[in-house]
Structure formats: structure tokens, C-alpha cells
Hints:
This protein is mainly alpha-helical. The protein has helices spanning 2-22, 32-53, 59-84, 103-109, 114-142, 147-165, 171-194. It has one domain (2-194).
Amino acid sequence: MEIEVVIHGLEIFVAILCFIALLPSSLNFKNLTKVYLLGSLLSFIVSKIYILEGPSYLVRDVVAWGNFVSISLVLSALFVIIRDSKPVFARFPIYLTMLPLSGIIFFASIPTSYAIKDILELIMQAGAVLVALLLFCVNTILFEWKWTFLISILAFLCAYIIPIISFKNTENELLLGAIFLCLGMIFLTFSLIKYPINIEKS
């Protein structure tokens, strides 16, 4: 139990730092990638704090909703990157970047079956990681994005794979997964601040 508190505390601390770092450049709402990622971080932070402080009988539901909303917003952020990588005449309407959030309606309609919700969450996480990996690889090669973007996605990929291949879920493996998750957040936040993307050219 003690190691779980350390893990959640570490994730909350890093997520709050990333949120604070991204906030100033997102206040004008011109960069929707950062806005969506801020929402994702906020949902992640709230669910993690609830794990530590909230009533235990609601933890499973709050975590499930927090994770689902968080990953939906990450997918929306990826939609923005895909949209902005296209020529102006070929871009889809900006409101379609909110399409992943429509999954909330489907998620709410699922009966109280945590197995189904867990599977759905794993599928969405895998989709987000794979899309981001392909997107960042292509942009790194074609448009010379900085390698820190790619490192962040590789860290997220490790954080995703470790719990799946771990059958025992030992404390050390859980901590390792949390460390990779935190590294992914740090590198992605640093990249978005140091090397901005999706900025309209005048």
C-alpha cells in the first residue's frame, strides 16, 4: 500500500508540474493541442487525488471515468496535430477534433462491467500510443521535429506495455511503469514548450 501512495504521489506531482508549465501558453486557446492536453492532465490529476483521498467504494468508478476522459482528450489532441499537418484546403473542420469525446456517451451506457470498461480503455490507450508513434516518427523524419517528441511517445509506450506483460504486477514493476509515464509527460511537455507545433503562420 505504501508503494502505491508513492506511485500516485509521483504521478500527481509530475502531472501538476506539467499542467502549470503548459498553462501560460494555452490561455489564449489558439493552440488546441495544448488545451486538450491540459484537460487530459486535469482529469488525470483529479482521478489520482481521489484514489488517495476519496471514499474507497467509488474509487473504481472515478478512476475508470478519469482515465477514459483523459485518453479521449489525448486522442482529440492528436486529431488537432493530424489536421494541422494537412494543407489548409484539405483540413477537416476543427469541431471534428472533438469526435473522440463522443465516446463518453457510449462509455456511460455500458453496464457496471469493469472488465468491458478496462478492455475499452486498453484499446483506446493502444490506439493513442500507436497513432502518436506513427505521427511523431513521420514528422520527425519529414519535418525535422525534435527527437524529444519521439522519446516521450516511447516512454508512454513502455508505460503501457509494462503492466500488460507483467503477470505478477509487483511493486517494482508498477513503480517502473509510473516512472516511464512521468518521463513521457515531462518530455512531451518540454517539447511542446521548447518546440511549439500547430502554430498558424502569418
